[in-house]
Design a protein that fits this description.
The complex is a heterodimer of chains A (312) and B (184). Chain A has three domains: 3-49, no CATH class; 53-111, no CATH class; 123-310, Galactose-binding domain-like (Jelly Rolls, Sandwich), CATH 2.60.120. Helix content of chain A is 22%, strand content 31%. Chain A is built from five helices and twelve strands. Chain A has helices at 3-11, 17-26, 30-49, 56-78, 229-236; strands at residues 115-125, 135-136, 146-147, 149-153, 167-170, 178-186, 197-208, 216-225, 247-255, 263-270, 277-286, 296-310. In chain A, strands 1, 4, 5, 7, 10 and 12 form a six-stranded antiparallel beta sheet that branches. In chain A, strands 2-3-6-11-8-9 form a six-stranded mixed beta sheet, with no helix packed on it. The model of chain A is unreliable at 52-114 (pLDDT under 50). Chain B has two domains: 3-106, Orthogonal Bundle (Rna Polymerase Sigma Factor, Chain: A); 111-183, Orthogonal Bundle (Arc Repressor Mutant, subunit A). By secondary structure, chain B is an all-alpha fold. The model of chain B has no long low-confidence stretch (mean pLDDT 84). In chain B, 81% of the residues lie in helices and 0% in strands. Classes of the chains: A alpha+beta (312), B mainly alpha (184).
């Protein structure tokens, strides 16, 4: 019997013990492993890949069923994380489902509003891993930090982490005014469920300078590109190609001399249709060109999508 | 924000990232999408409880698969009539091998996302009639005789059409992936 026939028999429940043994033996071969993975991924994913309109009612009923089941158990712990649609607005919990395509965190939607929102966390970085290895310069691909990282440190002189036990220390490199920390998000890993959805990315980061006599500047820049993550570096580093950016946004805040403590910035940007990669750039340095190139610290960097579904 | 909710948010982000393969693992072994949803939900609840206790989980997706496997075993044990339970050792060996397949997939970059992107294209290229047939089976979960009634075809014709459509989609996804590999 072929692998496809055996998988079909497993799938429809007609497989015998002998056939199951045969299927197990076949799975020693890589091509048969791929066949099983492809087959099962298709089976579990098809409900989400077919036209949404045909299944809207089922989506909702499946969601609500999940919430009703989970809510009594988790409501206290998860209060504020989620509620979904007026019917279940009082329920709080976490929805994960094959029908739902993603987990949903968010808040009650007023009864008359036509938009629904959900929040999908991207990452929450507190630099607690002292053995973390960071790339140098602009990242070559998605995920993971890269830039002018010097070390993950706990208390450094008078400076303590903003959150947790550690923070990242950035060291300026010669010839550059700002030290930077960057990462790329592969948007293909976070597909929208339907064409009626749009999304914003929200990034929050905390910065700390050396408390010198000079003013500091901290910044967050966001940029969306149509290109795949591994192709973004060449664009980012080329002035002549930077106009390929689909959307970009930056926020820079100056810290006056003598001002102390952590400064937290937050930036939101709409992700345009067709974007494949999102660059998150954090920069810190002396505001004045004549100022010293000192160490800077970053901590508690968070990013999330706020996805809005507009119902007609 | 507390340490606990940070850990849970991070775990949630990872769970979202891994959901396709985890869903395939659970649905594939259970052959029942509703039972699979229950298991996935239970896995998340157990994971969140562990994180709340402060347990460090090194390889979250493997941990989730292990927990899911226990829940799946329990599911099958409750269904004594199922043929596969007649020989639990055979089932265990099969699940071992399946787990190895998925552990291998974890190491492949964009394994699920590449296939799902290809699947989207393949589904989009189907005639409306075929998409409707698939919708009836996979999203409305209609019984085969109900689909036959709905589409005006015989039971056997619907069964064969669905098997052919599924095989065509798998072939289409494989072709697109091999083209992509060729292009890169």
């Amino acid at each position: 019997m072929t692998i496809d026939e055996l998988l079909q028999r497993w799938s429809d429940g007609s497989i015998t013990a002998d056939e199951l043994r045969e299927l197990t033996a076949k799975l020693a071969k890589p091509e048969h492993q791929s066949a099983l993975l492809d087959d099962w991924l298709l089976e579990s994913s098809l409900p989400d890949r077919l036209p949404v309109a045909a299944v809207a009612g089922l989506h909702e009923s499946a969601m609500n069923r999940r919430i009703e089941r989970i809510a009594p158990v988790r409501a206290k712990q998860w209060a504020g994380w989620l509620s979904w649609r007026p019917l279940t607005a009082a329920a709080a919990g976490l929805v994960i489902g094959l029908f739902s395509a993603s987990m949903v965190f968010a808040y009650a939607v007023p009864r008359m509003r036509m938009d629904r929102h959900r929040v999908v966390p991207l990452f929450n970085e507190r630099f607690e891993d002292v053995k973390a290895v960071f790339g140098r310069g602009f990242p070559n691909d998605a995920d993971g930090w890269s830039g002018d990282f010097d070390a993950v440190v706990s208390t450094d002189g008078a400076i303590s982490p903003k959150e947790g036990q550690h923070m990242a220390r950035l060291a300026p490199i010669a010839g550059r005014k700002f030290c930077a920390a960057e990462r790329i998000v592969d948007l293909a890993k976070f597909p929208l469920i339907s064409g009626t959805e749009s999304r914003m990315v929200e990034v929050t980061a905390s910065f700390h300078g050396m408390d010198s006599e000079w003013a500091d500047r901290n910044q967050i820049r966001l940029a969306a590109f149509a290109e795949a993550p591994k192709d973004v570096k060449a664009i980012w580093n080329s002035d002549s190609r930077l106009d390929q950016v689909l959307q970009h946004l930056g926020r820079t805040v100056t810290v006056k001399p003598g001002e102390h403590g952590w400064q937290t910035l937050k930036v939101s940007m709409e992700i345009p249709t067709g974007a494949r990669s999102l660059v998150i750039h954090l920069g810190a340095g002396a505001a004045d060109d004549a100022g010293p190139k000192t160490l800077h610290y970053i901590d508690d960097v968070r990013a999330q999508f706020v996805i809005t579904e507009t119902t007609p | 924000m507390s340490t606990e909710s940070h850990a849970i948010q991070q775990a949630a982000a990872d769970f979202i990232r891994d959901r396709h393969l985890l869903g395939a693992f659970v649905t594939g072994l259970l052959r029942d999408v509703h039972a699979a949803e229950d298991v996935l939900q239970e896995v998340w609840v157990l994971l969140a409880a562990e994180l709340e206790k402060g347990t460090g989980i090194e390889n979250q997706v493997a941990w989730c698969r292990g927990v899911a496997r226990n829940l799946i075993r329990r599911h099958w044990e409750k269904r004594q009539t199922a043929k596969v339970v007649a020989d639990s050792e055979t089932l265990e060996t099969f699940m071992d091998r399946v787990e190895q397949c998925f552990a291998w997939a974890d190491t492949q970059e964009h394994f699920a996302t590449a296939r799902l992107a290809a699947l989207d294209e393949c589904v989009a290229s189907l005639p409306d009639r075929s998409r409707r047939l698939l919708s009836l089976k996979y999203t409305q979960r209609a019984a085969m005789d109900r689909i036959a009634e709905e589409t005006g075809q015989s039971f056997e014709a619907v069964k064969k059409a669905l098997i052919r459509l599924r095989a065509a989609l798998l072939e289409c996804v494989r072709r697109k992936l091999s083209q992509e590999e060729w292009n890169t």
